[in-house]
Amino acid sequence: MRFRPARDDALLVELDGLDEAVALVASLRAEPLDWAGEPVPGERTVLVPFDPVMTTARDVARALRDRPVAGVARAPGREIAIPTVYDGADLADVAGLLGWTVAELVRRHTSARFVVGFVGFAPGFAYLTSDDAALVVPRRTTPRTRVPVGSVAMAGPYSGVYPRESPGGWQLLGRTGVAVWDQERDPPALWRPGDRVRFVDVGADDVGPVGTSVSVRQSGLPNGTRTADLTAALEVVDPGVLTIVEDLGRPGIAAMGVSTSGALDARSLRAANRVVGNPVGAAGLETTGGLRLRARGRLVVSVTGAAAALTVHPADGGPPRRVRASAPTVLADGDELDVAVPSRGMRCYVAVRGGVDVEPVLGSRATDVLAGLGPGPLRAGDTVPVGPGAPLGPVALGDAGARDPRALPAPGDVVTLPLVLGPRDDWFDAASLARLADQEWEVTARSNRVGLHLRGHEPLQRSAAYADAELPSEGCVTGALQVPSDGQPVLFLADHPLTGGYPVVGAVRSADVGTAGQLPPGARVRFAPARAAG
User: Fold this and answer.
1) Measured distance CA(265)–CA(309) in Å, rounded
2) How far, rounded to the nearest angstrom, does the alpha carbon of residue 172 sit from its chain's CA centroid?
3) pLDDT tens, 245-256?
4) No. of helices (H) and no. of strands (E), the chain
5) 10-14 and 45-49: which strand pairing?
6) Mean pLDDT (whole number) for 53-71
7) Which DSSP letter does residue 268 get?
8) What is the C-alpha to C-alpha distance for residues 196 and 198, in angstroms, rounded to an integer?
9) Biggest alpha carbon distance in the chain?
């Protein structure tokens, strides 16, 4: 085993191959360590999170070295056929890269026998290894921002099927109507490690519009006909730019390719819940502003996070009143709460006593925009149910732990983020590592909950030894700074892919991930890189 830092609270364990990685994950799941989080397997690696309060990276490595990983055979799984129309946008290019005709590529791809190695990137996305050693192609130089659901694709030695529309850098061979992920199915993923897969060429036959067999995400919100049946609720008058339901996420199901997700600024959500007397993990609303809510019943709410004007418009027609952030506010039936677009920071969190009571999906109410899990973005007219809470009365504020919104950045401000170098900083030349720290990086408008797309005057360059190298897919933490081929980094936020195939030069410290989630487009970042503590 070889160990590389992945953040101040995670190690990337390098092994000799996939079988050893699968064996280590199986060992950690069968006999978990008290201080370890859920392991995430890659092609030749395992990402192991740990609690830095309870242990050190050195002790983690020492404990992992004792785990058996050699000679562990995987039991053969089921055989699954994937009917495929080979008409992908990259089909001819892939054939050219391999020196084959399109017909030969299709013949080789359908003749090969695949095995599910591991599941990552997105829920139900399986990395399929082939018995044909020639089926190896590089990823696209620039990832697509939109890959259709059901796309059959290749990258490196793997083939795969996109479970939903998402960004992606794999080469597209064709499409299938098979639902590889369906949250209404038990289990939701079509396959598991060890299953055998073959692709079947159906020519131009209709496999159904791509993705029609994938269940449509439920909104999780009752329609207007149920409003009268709800004892307490929030009615959405105006959803603003983007308002979604968030809690602290769904940890513990990485085996299905599902990342934790949850509030981008978990500290602010916890603080809002403390103010109204909820458990800190209760679901609330995350909004980028412009939100207007109407109370159904008498409610206690609090707003934390970004600096935004908060105004209550009384139902009785009285004058509007400004309210303080991070303080309990009582809304009478029919009162409306306005959350303006923030002047500093990016996201506000609205907690309501009793919590947002939408139906959980895989144990959480959080919206994961990449995976398509949880409620969709709120729309005007939606009714958000509120759960039963403590009886209305005074709330003891104490120290709720809320951020000072005045300390958050506005567009144009420069923010310094501490960065733990690794696991792949050695892929970059010395000049690029210096540039990483010396140069300001602008947060672009392409940024979202998946990640902050950064732009620097000079991109990062790989070292000569890795100029044309392909990185086997490996687990990534929230806060990872991934560098695509164009050299402009992407800072992963809560809805990032579970695994990735571009090198990660470093990761924002775990304590500062929430600050990264509050960076608006136009803000500028300076990184303060350092080596991980032993």
Assistant:
1) 19
2) 23
3) 999 999 988 888
4) 7, 33
5) antiparallel
6) 89
7) H
8) 7
9) 75
